[in-house]
Amino acid sequence: MSTIQVIHSGFFTTVQDGGRFGYQKAGVSVGGVMDSFASRIANLLVENDANEATLEITMNGSTLRFETDALIAICGGVFRCALNGKPISMWKPLVIRRGDVLSIGACQNGYRAYIAFAGGLNIPIVMNSRSTHVQAHIGGFHGRALQPGDVLSLRSKTITIPKNPIRWGIAFSARNYIKGKRKMIRVVKGPEYHMFTEQSRERFFSSVYEVTTQSDRMGYRLQGQALERMTNQEMVSEAVTFGTIQVPKNGQPIVLMADCQTTGGYPRIAQVIRIDLPILAQARPGDHIQFQKVSWQEAQRLYIEREQEIKKWKMIIRQKWREIGYAR
Amino acid sequence: MDYTMFPLSEYAVTIRFSTKVDEAVNDYVHRVAAFLEQQNKDGIFDIVPTFSSVTVYYDPLVAGSCEEICEWLRTELERVEQVKAPPSRTVVIPVCYGGEFGPDLQEVARFHGITEEEVISIHSRGSYRVYMIGFAPGFAYLGGLSPEIATPRRSTPRTLVPAGSVGIAGSQTGIYPLATPGGWQIIGRTPLALFRPHDPEPSLLRAGDIVQFRPITEEQYRMWENEHDSSNT
């Protein structure tokens, strides 16, 4: 059997893919990976579709015993990883032999890592997606985080293992986006930006916010200088999305993350630009965030550039596989 | 109808028809959402109607830039007037009021100085409009609760409210689709599943529906539950 035994699950490990689209009108959140850059690159390294389901590891990782040969890639924050006790590198394809034990240790920089498996994990699709929706107990591995004793399996029964050694990976410059404990996050003005006092609007960009321990895949609650609105008028709920920054009555911003609700009624001061969401996803409680304003045009341009960059990586990786005479 | 349009993110644009809760506006919102969905435009992957706005999620690499999407939406919005409103369904929700299923029924009655039977009668006589589905899977925002039974939330929220619980919170009434913590005054429970993850349409209620509550006995509740269980196996 092409199975993988979960020996240690880690702090919080779930199956996530590119997200559950088309069901927001039924109140179902999109979910999916928090750091789509790391997850997509991990998938591309093993020649999967970029949005294939990966294991999302938070803070410290799982120990997995492979009862099958496999080809994997681990991308994301800096985690101590080992294969049969020997340190291994992230951001490159890794050959796993039947009987091997992979352990992902503590996270040294960033917060999340992604393991992609060539051919994909054998996880049923629920509402167009393999993502785990923990609140609704659906998708992923029985709708929950992994536990010791769980058995995962791979979709393809046989994986051809490349004969020649793999000596390449993603360049450091391309994966150096996580930065340290203080992160600069670019945002565009939200629909209710103008409803905040001038002082609060200024404060939002000049002060530093701390990520609190009340932060999870649904949202990051930040702590810093309180933001005030000019009126106390209640709002009618409207759509919100990954990266929307809402400000409830206490004036402390909440950044909505991958598992966020589909609609919200708090004023939206700003929206994190899409290409900075992976940086935010790699922030952990205690880290500091400073927001920087950019225009919608700039955000759109950066997004298209990022997509082109990922396309470029896909081509380079395919070329590298060809060079070592391997094609899946 | 007048509207404003603004980007929500690099892949979403909101068309806002009003900033208030209004039945006519909400009717129009659902017509727009249904109409846009019928167009099946490439690159549009989610359309989310709310009280008084519609948000369109799109892939800019397929559907075009924000400017292009807004231009397309403006043209489409001119054609909406010619389209009939989608038929409104009336959905009857059986509710077993009081007892273990409605632990706060007594409190709601006491708050208003009426009997529990009167609370049930007022609640089940009403006709409620589904303004939108949001917040949680299958959660319906209902309008139309009688002020005679509007009751503030519990001072201490429960750590676990069972799925199907029917509650009152201020001037709102609603049904918990999933077992979650919650502060609503729970007056009853329905054996119907509001959220059906394996159905093509996972939310029992749809925006624009009319909801009516029908009181059932505990025995009927149990029978309903058993029938549902056997139909699943």
TrEMBL record, chain A:
SMART domains: AHS2. Pfam families: CT_A_B. This is Antagonist of KipI. PANTHER family: 5-OXOPROLINASE SUBUNIT C. InterPro entries: CT_A_B (IPR003778), Cyclophilin-like_dom_sf (IPR029000), PxpC (IPR052708).
Automatic annotation (TrEMBL), chain B:
It holds the Pfam family CT_C_D. This is Inhibitor of KinA. It comes from Parageobacillus toebii NBRC 107807.
